[in-house]
Amino acid sequence: MTFRTKLLFALLAAAVVHGIYNFLIPLHPDEAYYWLWSVYPDWSYFDHPAMIAWMIKALSFLGDSEGAVRATTVLCMSGACYALSMLSYRIGGERAGWILFIAFSVLPAAAMGYAFVTPDSPLMLFWCFALYWGYLAISGEGNRYFILTGVAIALMIVSKYTAVLFIGSLFIYMLVFDRKLFKNKYMWLAAIIGACGVIPIVIWNMQNDWISIKFQYTHGTSDSFKILWDEWLLLLGGIQLLPTPIFAFIMYKASFYFKGYRREQWFKFLLTLFLVPIVFFLYKGLFKKMELNWPIIGFLAAFPMMAVYIAAGYHKRLFKAGAIFAGVLTVILLVSPFLPLPDSINISLRLKGNKEAVEELKSVMVVDNDTKFFSDYLINASIMTYYLDGHPRVYVPVGARFNQFNLWDNGTDYSTMKGYYMGAWNKGKQKELLKAFGKIEFIKKFKTGNPLKPKELHIYRVGE
After folding, report:
1. Domain ranges in the chain?
2. For residue 50, how many C-alpha atoms fall within 13 Å in the half-sphere facing its CB?
3. pLDDT tens for each residue of 349-379
4. What share of the chain is helix, strand, coil (3-state, %, to 5)?
5. What pTM value is reported for the model?
6. pLDDT single digits (tens) 240-275
7. Which distant-in-sequence residues (6+ apart) come within 8 Å of 442 by Cβ?
8. Measured over all CA atoms, what is the biggest interatomic distance in the chain, rounded to whole angstroms?
9. What is the CA radius of gyration of the chain?
């Protein structure tokens, strides 16, 4: 069999294992939120572009169980691994391809990517294919790869706004290392195709006063230039943990000490796509807190560099140690939800309490055809929608950070509605609910979630 065929069989086996696992753990509220987007298809959404919703919708024929919802991310991560493995194979041969597959398969971050649906899932898929096809394009494998790279960039843009970093990195690569590409008509055709990815985002934002663009700018940018050293040092340390410290060390060695390949086109291409996103987030992190999952896209280019480096005979023993270390961490991470671990070391506590909270609500409610459901924020509202029987619409009549529910609920007259509210509670929320419904009746309160930091939820009957 060819390397491609063997790789596809290996990826299929990995997908089956991860797919079965995904039926065994409850949805995280963020996953329920993205699933809910697929129930209301649109050109884009307040928080992110629409690709994750479109993909969940496309696979909805599989059902609405946890595993079926997560089929999207299993597909995305398998595709990302395929693209990176094939890229490594094309550069460094079959040994490099298998090294990449092993490194990706044992990585804790990849295991989490297989398990949880987020907009990062399609972003990583199309980023990896843009890397693969982009390399084939610039190395002269055929003009069709310019077209395919443009398609991947367009789909990447519709996945998450951070796709602009791929475009910026590619421009820097061309400007510094490969200026002749500016004269290539197929490169410009690819750029036009890639730019089409902004069309659904622009359409939606034109209809909604550009609120998503404004939010994303303020979400990742600070008006102050005061350096947040504590947050920055945490970001710097966290970045080393994303690929695990051992793999990170090998990647840096491959980047700066891989002397035999410094003049190679592929090396300059991957090095640029590795360093530019990482440096960007390190710079932004000086002034505003960065989420740790944001810079992971930079390491997608570093993995093939590491695979080729090891295949060339460098740090083979260290790689084996790193693979064992990463694999052990991944196993611990995956089995932790099913083990009676002490709360102080249980890393799966964030999954607990959400489904149980909905069961608390079910135990006290009496439902008729007019019964509606309400909550205080997208987290609780989304998990209620998913785990309540029939997936009823849940409204958010009380104040919180602006989110997609504000758009869905815009213009709703709550005074004509009745039903059950479940959410956090304070005097401010009490006043808002009284104003919205006129009458509220306390039913019960309970604590749920992480035992070390439980959240208290209240259930009220609201309306006449």
Report:
1. 3-219+302-338, 352-462
2. 21
3. 778 889 999 999 999 999 888 999 999 989 9
4. 65, 5, 25
5. 0.94
6. 999 999 999 999 999 988 777 888 999 999 999 999
7. 458, 459, 460
8. 77
9. 24
